[in-house]
Amino acid sequence: QITERIIVLFAVINSQEEVQGKYVVCILFFLWNLLDVVRYTYNMLARTGIYYLPLTWLNFSLCIPLYPLSVLAKAFAICVSLPYFESSGTYSIKLPLPFTFSIYFPYVLKMYLLVLFIGMCFIIQNLFSERKAHLGTGNIIKKRS
């Protein structure tokens, strides 16, 4: 998660001034902070032995819809930045003669988008299993009298 945020924040958003003013950056920061405030508050209280049920539910339920939204916001920020990277050639490298190899950064970002969406599928499955382990299935079985 830290590597993911470093790539998006410093390599994509910070390096292109045109992207910094886009609405998607504000939405992305809002989603990141909302998820972190709930998660870190829950973890801090859980470490001290305090389990507040609404916060537990919020921690394990809020991340399920918000994580895919943050992935979409990251993907949109990357897609918005691609034309700027293509025109400026930022982070694109051409190695000298013995190697004759070049790295075109927009292609790296496109590959990262693919990995980002594949990883999201695994993380969503993990989030559902954590929610089920901590909160149960949520099904209420009616007793017959």
UniProtKB/TrEMBL annotation:
<dbReference type="GO" id="GO:0005789">
    <property type="term" value="C:endoplasmic reticulum membrane"/>
</dbReference>
<keyword id="KW-0275">Fatty acid biosynthesis</keyword>
<keyword id="KW-1133">Transmembrane helix</keyword>
<dbReference type="GO" id="GO:0042761">
    <property type="term" value="P:very long-chain fatty acid biosynthetic process"/>
</dbReference>
<comment type="pathway">
    <text>Lipid metabolism; fatty acid biosynthesis.</text>
</comment>
<feature type="transmembrane region" description="Helical">
    <location>
        <begin position="103"/>
        <end position="124"/>
    </location>
</feature>
<keyword id="KW-0456">Lyase</keyword>
<keyword id="KW-0472">Membrane</keyword>
<keyword id="KW-0276">Fatty acid metabolism</keyword>
<dbReference type="GO" id="GO:0030148">
    <property type="term" value="P:sphingolipid biosynthetic process"/>
</dbReference>
<dbReference type="Pfam" id="PF04387">
    <property type="entry name" value="PTPLA"/>
</dbReference>
<protein>
    <recommendedName>
        <fullName>Very-long-chain (3R)-3-hydroxyacyl-CoA dehydratase</fullName>
        <ecNumber>4.2.1.134</ecNumber>
    </recommendedName>
</protein>
<feature type="transmembrane region" description="Helical">
    <location>
        <begin position="50"/>
        <end position="83"/>
    </location>
</feature>
<keyword id="KW-0812">Transmembrane</keyword>
<dbReference type="GO" id="GO:0030497">
    <property type="term" value="P:fatty acid elongation"/>
</dbReference>
<keyword id="KW-0443">Lipid metabolism</keyword>
<keyword id="KW-0256">Endoplasmic reticulum</keyword>
<comment type="function">
    <text>Catalyzes the third of the four reactions of the long-chain fatty acids elongation cycle. This endoplasmic reticulum-bound enzymatic process, allows the addition of two carbons to the chain of long- and very long-chain fatty acids/VLCFAs per cycle. This enzyme catalyzes the dehydration of the 3-hydroxyacyl-CoA intermediate into trans-2,3-enoyl-CoA, within each cycle of fatty acid elongation. Thereby, it participates to the production of VLCFAs of different chain lengths that are involved in multiple biological processes as precursors of membrane lipids and lipid mediators.</text>
</comment>
<dbReference type="InterPro" id="IPR007482">
    <property type="entry name" value="Tyr_Pase-like_PTPLA"/>
</dbReference>
<comment type="similarity">
    <text>Belongs to the very long-chain fatty acids dehydratase HACD family.</text>
</comment>
<keyword id="KW-0444">Lipid biosynthesis</keyword>
<dbReference type="GO" id="GO:0102158">
    <property type="term" value="F:very-long-chain (3R)-3-hydroxyacyl-CoA dehydratase activity"/>
</dbReference>
